[in-house]
Amino acid sequence: MKHIFNYIITIHNKEELIEQVLSSVIRCCNNNSFIYPVLDGCTDRSEEIIDEIILKNPGVPITKIKVNDVHEILSINAGLRASDQSIEGYNIILQDDVILQDEFLEKKITRLYEKIGRQLGYVSFRLGANFKRDVLESSEGAPLKDYVENAFGHGLDNSKIILPGQFAFRSVAIKSPVCIPTAIVKQYGILDENLEPCFHDDTEYCLRLLAKGYKNGVFGIKYQSDLEWGGTRKKPNPDLYKIIKKNMNYLRIKYRAQILMIVSSQQDKQILSFPEFTDIDENQKALYQYKLNKQKKIKFELNGLPFIQKIIYYLKRMIN
Fold first, then answer.
1. Which CATH architecture has domain 4-319?
2. In the prediction, which pLDDT does 303 show?
């Protein structure tokens, strides 16, 4: 039987981008694919644009879901609840600032899980990391190390990159986009709503799966998601960093025994290459895009800084 694919897209006031985002998802879809745009408190034309897309694509199952400005975790859960988790397949979860650019995504995901086996759990197409040894004693909001990033990501500093067709094992896979098999959601449930409105839901789900013997990681596929596309909330939570720390402390308590076991052993950092998933030309384009994204990241970070602060920024980068 052909695998089902549920595309869950969380959307908040992204009228300038949502047509590209939805169109890119439609290009990935096959006969057993379903799209769930979750409109989270939208006050712009996002819903109107989605209605137009639905009319133009009568053969594509698109089901709108509306929630009242509940932010990321509850929006994703609304999509997971509305979609069918009883049929074997995969949930592809992405935010409204991600344009998928791999039309063979479904084929690659199916083959990846077949090749690695049923122990493969939570997969990010963007970013992943392992836990630091002092994760339980640390006061950090994100006590992680060994970062690995898709070459089409944001070009983070101190992060190993992977190319299309490569898969890197990591304890924590970080969205967006991400993939969670329907069989896992059916058996182990949706995201932990104690963490709402956002942050460390990935970490929690990865810990949940690690405790059950699964492995997580990062898979290199082509997509676009520029830094300036994110952060559309007109009223971002002023306690953002407090929320991140609070949620991490919640995980330290909830998963203390599991975390002790994880950091006392060697966390997997293996990188696998699947040549059949890519070619030399695509890899060269990925490396070129990685350089561009790093330049965009520097420009984004410098935007609005006074001249002296820009000098200090460059000096710090030279030292590091």
1. Alpha-Beta Complex (3.90)
2. 72
